[in-house]
């Protein structure tokens, strides 16, 4: 008689509200597919993405494993509690549980601190023996050689934008005060071996896309065939180009495979025209740059001094000159900022034709030095993690009220994704991959249309804010 395999449910929980639910397409994810890849074959593994699927709380499962960023943690705890009531073992990993394991342990039987792949098989073996530990501590200095390919096949492609997520490195040498990446993944920039990345990319993109019409369209600068043939990659690394020699080797592979791609990178690469030209040759559509602030003083405050040396406008122009679009992100809520900051960011985005521009409220995530500092100053006013979504203000600001900050942000998003702004940034020349950016901006246009804002600093005609957009 055949015995039934034990079932492991890997769950990415979701809030029942929030901006992402308004998107037609959403991004897939890699963390649970990575865990699935190191799960021994004799287990049955299912991944549930609650943003798209309903969790069956009566499912006959042996183990439930949850992942969550901070704003999703409360929902992850609810899900864990419900399974636990039935006696199902629950465990949790990810940035939030790793930072606050005590909190998570009130809801789950075990917490995995750090990178999951390296302790997951051991956890399963312990559970089999009835010896599950409360904490599994995985360091932040693992070699990435031999990292298995994530089980992307366990995600339903119908739910996601046709984009393949790939990771090449972990860790970041910088120390930005709001960011948990270097604390979580370490300061050492760890790189996967080029041969392993090449094999993974070839398995997905080797062959295909040889049709002469497609090639001609692509040569004319029309990206359509790449979209249709799903030859798009998003490198989720926090900093794809921290080691340019290494990045160049990957770019040679991308060029050979004839794909389009985008990544996160720091602004300093804009000073290297040779590198930008190679990015363009290899199919780079966009660089996501965390500009954070237009004030050098504030960049220093957040320990991002390296960025303060750069002329952001000149950097964007250098990317555009090389046919690379820029997705710029900013942060508001610094102590010296008043409501005129929204207008300044809007004007900057228009003046420099940022292909996509998104601003967030400065958020002290637990575990970061920003959190420690704000806690010391007694400025944390909100402990509901759901509000730690960068659209809410969770600390006592100085130059604005909480309402001004939250409503000003909404207003900025609405103006940034208005039709006139989209026209000025995307349609009016220079056009950099306009199809790609039009699609992306129109998603946000759809979403923000429903947002009403009682406070609209971009329409306030005072001395600081200048003319209306
Ligand atoms: C790509 C990315 C996004 C993308 C896509 C996310 C996706 N679909 O995967 C987008 C743009 C949508 C996004 C959005 C947000 N993001 Co984001 N994002 C990232 C980024 C750059 C990479 C994430 C990633 O895939 N990493 C690689 C995977 C393999 O790592 P991982 O998820 O941490 O998983 C590993 C371990 O944590 C652990 N693990 C994780 N879960 C589990 C579960 C179990 C059971 C086990 C055993 C182990 C385990 O094992 C995994 C493998 O080693 C990270 C920074 C970073 N380098 O991680 C920020 C990061 C995760 N994001 C962050 C934030 C704040 C957000 C937002 C809340 C706000 C914002 N303005 O960006 C939103 C909210 C999204 C949401 N759903 O709530 C913060 C999280 C901070 C926190 N305390 O939660 C990070 C760390 C960046 C930062 N500056 O601090 N993000
Ligand atoms: S450069 Fe990016 S990933 Fe690195 S610490 Fe700063 S914000 Fe975090």
Brief descriptors of the model:
2 domains, Rossmann fold, pyruvate-formate lyase- activating enzyme, 6-stranded parallel β-sheet, binds cobalamin, binds iron/sulfur cluster, 469 residues, disordered C terminus, 14% strand, alpha/beta
How many distinct helices? 19
Tally of domains? 2
Main sheet: strands, sense, barrel = 6 strands, parallel
Which small compounds were modeled alongside the protein?
A: cobalamin, iron/sulfur cluster
User: Considering DSSP H and I runs of 4 or more, what fraction of the residues is helical?
Assistant: 25-40%
**Ends apart, CA distance between termini:** 72 Å
The beta-strand count equals 14
Multimeric organization: single chain
How would you state the average pLDDT, rounded?
Answer: 91
For this structure, what is the CATH class of the largest domain? Alpha Beta
- CATH fold-level label of the largest domain: pyruvate-formate lyase- activating enzyme
Kindly report the name of the CATH homologous superfamily of the largest domain: tm_1862 like domain
Cα gyration radius (Å): 23 Å
The main sheet orders its strands as 2-1-3-4-5-6
Provide a descriptive summary of the structure in words.
There is one protein chain. The protein has helices spanning 31-37, 73-85, 95-99, 101-105, 120-129, 181-185, 194-205, 212-219, 224-228, 244-257, 273-281, 296-301, 305-308, 312-321, 340-351, 369-376, 402-416, 419-427, 434-449, and strands at residues 7-12, 44-49, 63-67, 89-93, 110-113, 135-137, 164-166, 169-170, 190-191, 232-235, 260-264, 284-292, 325-332, 356-361. It is α/β, with parallel strands linked by helices. The protein has two domains: 7-137, 3-Layer(aba) Sandwich (Rossmann fold), CATH 3.40.50.280; 162-459, pyruvate-formate lyase- activating enzyme (Alpha-Beta Horseshoe). A six-stranded parallel beta sheet has the order 2-1-3-4-5-6, sandwiched between helices. It has a six-stranded parallel beta sheet with strand order 7-10-11-12-13-14. Strands 8-9 form a two-stranded antiparallel sheet. Helix 15 (340-351) links the parallel strand 13 and strand 14 (356-361). Helix 10 (244-257) runs parallel beside helix 11 (273-281) and helix 15 packs parallel to helix 17. The longest helix is centred in the C-terminal third of the chain and has 16 residues, at 434-449. It is globular, with a radius of gyration of 23 Å. 41% of the residues are buried. It binds cobalamin and iron/sulfur cluster. Cobalamin (B12) is lined by residues 27, 29-31, 34-35, 65, 67, 69-72, 91-96, 112, 115-117, 120, 167, 179-181, 236, 238, 360, 365, 389-390.
